[in-house]
Amino acid sequence: MRTPFVAGNWKMNKTVAEARDLVSTMGVGLKAVKGVEKVVCPPFTSLLAVANLLGGTDIGLGAQNMHWEEKGAFTGEIAPEMVKEFCKYVILGHSERRQYFGETDETVNKRVLAAQKHGIIPIVCVGETLQEYEAGKTAEVVRRQTLGALAGVEAGFAPSLVIAYEPVWAIGTGKASSGENAQHVHGQVIRPVLVELFGQETAGAIRILYGGSVTGANAAEFFSQTDIDGALVGGASLKDDFVLIAQAAAA
Ligand code: PEP
User: Fold this and answer.
1) From the alpha carbon of 91, which atom of ligand 1 is closest?
2) What is the pLDDT along the chain (251 residues), one digit of tens a residue?
3) Could you tell me what percentage of the chain is helix, strand and coil, using 3-state DSSP and rounding each to the nearest 5?
4) Among 3.20.20.70, 3.55.40.20, 3.90.79.10, 2.60.120.330, what is the CATH number of 5-250?
């Protein structure tokens, strides 16, 4: 069966000193949660400090983005080997990257294939905008993004993939999707695409997270759904709430 997975996306928050403080306090609660894969994704500048604090614990570390090229003249970018020095995971295709930094299905796919090449586990984000949701285009958009991101992923690597369904209208708005709506997208759109790509057995092993205004108070509603295997958490991952979310995933 699929081990529940909770990841905290810190976004552009926390200096090194603040990151150390957060992970030191939150780490105590997180370590006590068993049977759940727990991951924190601080900004690049804090990866080394957080990696040093997490060494020897069962809390994983992820980056928030990564370029696909090996090295070279790409000012401001971070290469896969640099991510791999610290991180087991990398968030790719987050809607904020798509919205503000011009990422497309094609460039997300290049990043996913680079992660595969370097053995970094990608947390691949998909999700429709409010406009697309209101136009009834959720299934079409999520299907297109999932197929686009995963083109060329090999069957051997596929089971380690983590997909995050994050409706853009629910991110940072305090207006989470209902558990039922998220389950529908996970079970009727994303999982079937994974079956198409990799077959039933492999698709059944891939974790699909929900993301969008998850809190300690609403997490259980998501985790009780058959095809929701955890959460990608933004705002609440900067607070003790993240421990409550991990506890809800364990329950
Ligand atoms: C996110 O940024 O991935 C996210 C889900 O944010 P929030 O939990 O704040 O909605």
Assistant:
1) 3
2) 899 999 999 999 999 999 999 999 999 999 999 999 999 999 999 999 999 999 999 999 999 999 999 999 999 999 999 999 999 999 999 999 999 999 999 999 999 999 999 999 999 999 999 999 999 999 999 999 999 999 999 999 999 999 999 999 999 999 999 999 999 999 999 999 999 999 999 999 999 999 999 999 999 999 999 999 999 999 999 999 999 999 999 99
3) 45, 15, 35
4) 3.20.20.70
Q: Cβ of 75: how many Cβ atoms within 10 Å? A: 4
**pTM across the whole model:** 0.97
232 lines ligand 1 (CB under 6 A): yes
Q: Which atom of ligand 1 is nearest to the CA of 94?
A: 3
- How far is ligand 1, taken at its centre, from the CA of residue 144, in Å? 21
User: Minimal CA–CA distance to 219: which of 207, 205, 202, 236?
Assistant: 236
* Cβ burial 152-177 (10 Å sphere, 16+ → b, else e): ebeeebbebbbbbbbbbbbbeeeebb
